[in-house]
């Protein structure tokens, strides 16, 4: 069961289905609901004004929560916590979080032992949701794992798509770096964790090559044979509040734990690998 069958989790759901799993999930978008059902998924409406029938959770063995917290907190806890804890076959829970829980680290390398220090309301909401999921299953024997996902990209959601839609921007903020993660490597990490669950585990899910936000745009332009968009000073960028929040934090995530504990070798260990594969797929 996936709370939030969006871009990333739909790609995982397809992999699971190909492996013989039965996959159910939720969305709050009526159009998305119809698309998911047309694709053969057992999809259901779930949102602030659309409660989920607890009976739909029967038989769940693995659960992923990928929905962002609401103002009031995580949308599934406490609404469904008691139902989830009572599921007799449940044996793995994964919560998808964000590196925003670490706050700004001035470009330092950060592993999962670093104490969270959110610097934004979004980061605090995510940290509270992480803690809510751990607390909900405390003393139940069901292992809960948290996955802090770096900037997600992949087919249909990459620098190529930003450029084609005229939304790619190069912002001049020296020293700004962050990690990314290809959407299919997220799925590989979750599958590996399902095979090796560890209660209370926290994983950075990211590539091993943090770099400037401009680098993927420039590399995508190189592959497309076009000039990159002009460099805009940060002070003149006119970023949205969310964009400014993003640029207010700078950190480099280590990814040793997904390799050492889960045995994961990323298919796309850097943005160049991912963009090369996307471009090759487009040209095939």
Automatic annotation (TrEMBL):
SUPFAM superfamilies: NAD(P)-binding Rossmann-fold domains. CDD domains: SDR_a4. Residues 93-206 form the NAD-dependent epimerase/dehydratase domain. Pfam families: Epimerase. Keywords: NAD. The keyword Chloroplast does not apply. It comes from the Bacteria. The keyword Lyase does not apply. InterPro entries: Epimerase_deHydtase, NAD(P)-bd_dom_sf. This is Nucleoside-diphosphate-sugar epimerase.
């Amino acid at each position: 069961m996936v709370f939030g069958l969006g871009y990333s989790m739909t790609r995982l759901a397809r992999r699971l289905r190909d492996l013989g799993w039965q996959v159910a999930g939720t969305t709050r978008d009526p159009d998305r609901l119809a698309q998911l059902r047309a694709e053969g998924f057992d999809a259901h409406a779930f949102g602030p004004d659309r409660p989920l029938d607890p009976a739909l959770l029967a038989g769940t063995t693995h659960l992923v929560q990928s929905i962002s917290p609401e103002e009031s907190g995580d949308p599934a806890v406490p609404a469904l916590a008691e139902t989830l804890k009572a599921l007799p076959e449940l044996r793995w829970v994964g919560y998808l979080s964000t590196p925003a829980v670490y706050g700004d680290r001035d470009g330092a390398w950060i592993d999962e032992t670093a104490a969270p220090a959110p610097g934004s309301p979004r980061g605090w909401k995510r940290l509270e949701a992480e803690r809510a999921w751990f607390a909900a299953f405390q003393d139940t024997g069901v292992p809960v794992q948290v996955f802090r996902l770096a900037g997600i990209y992949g087919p249909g959601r990459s620098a190529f798509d930003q450029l084609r839609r005229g939304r790619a921007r190069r912002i001049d903020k020296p020293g700004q770096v962050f990690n990314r993660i290809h959407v299919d490597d997220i799925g590989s990490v979750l599958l590996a964790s399902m095979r090796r669950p560890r209660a209370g585990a926290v994983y950075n899910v990211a590539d091993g090559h943090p770099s400037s936000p401009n680098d993927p745009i420039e590399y995508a332009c190189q592959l497309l044979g076009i000039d990159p968009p002009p460099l805009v000073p940060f002070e003149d960028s006119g970023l949205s509040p969310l964009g400014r929040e993003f640029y207010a934090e700078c950190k480099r995530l280590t990814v040793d734990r997904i390799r050492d504990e889960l045995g994961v070798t990323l298919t796309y260990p850097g943005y160049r690998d991912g963009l090369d594969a996307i471009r090759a797929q487009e040209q095939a």
